[in-house]
Structures are given as C-alpha cells and as structure tokens.
Amino acid sequence: MKLKNKIYLQDILMLNSFSKKCLATIAIAAILHLFYKFIKRKCTKPIDYSNKHILITGASSGIGECIAKHYYNYGATIYLASNDEINVEIK
Description:
Elements: H1 9-13, H2 17-43, E1 53-57, H3 62-73, E2 77-81
Parallel strand pairs: 1-2
C-alpha cells in the first residue's frame, strides 16, 4: 500500500526560505513545549527538607542568601557562613 502524504527530505529542501523558517519555528516550539512538560512534571512535588542540616557559605547576599531562604522555607535547619555580617530576613 502506498501512502500519498509522505514528506521526504528532498521536498523539505525545495521549500522557500519563509516556509523553512516557519517549519523551524514550529519544531523549536514543539521541543520547548516537551521540555516544559518534562520540567513541570519533575518539579511539581516539593522535597521535604525537615530533619536536614545544610551549611551555606556566602549567605550574606546574592545566590547564597536566596538558597538559604529556599531551604529554610522548606523546613531545613540551615547554618550560614560568610565573610560579611549576616543580616538575612526570612520571608
């Protein structure tokens, strides 16, 4: 049985520039959508950090401060270390 709607590589190569860009955009959008669904599925269940002890260096500002707040909000016992004075407000 012969299929009438097969798309061959030579047919794609004969498309004009605009059609190729549209096809590439659709392919990228599909890949990003699948990646988003994969990440969303993996990140929906928060991890329980109660009874966990975490040492965070550089916790006075920047990434260290954000990490400290994140783990504190999920119930971890955190220990902060920094060269500067630590003034962290947990929100």
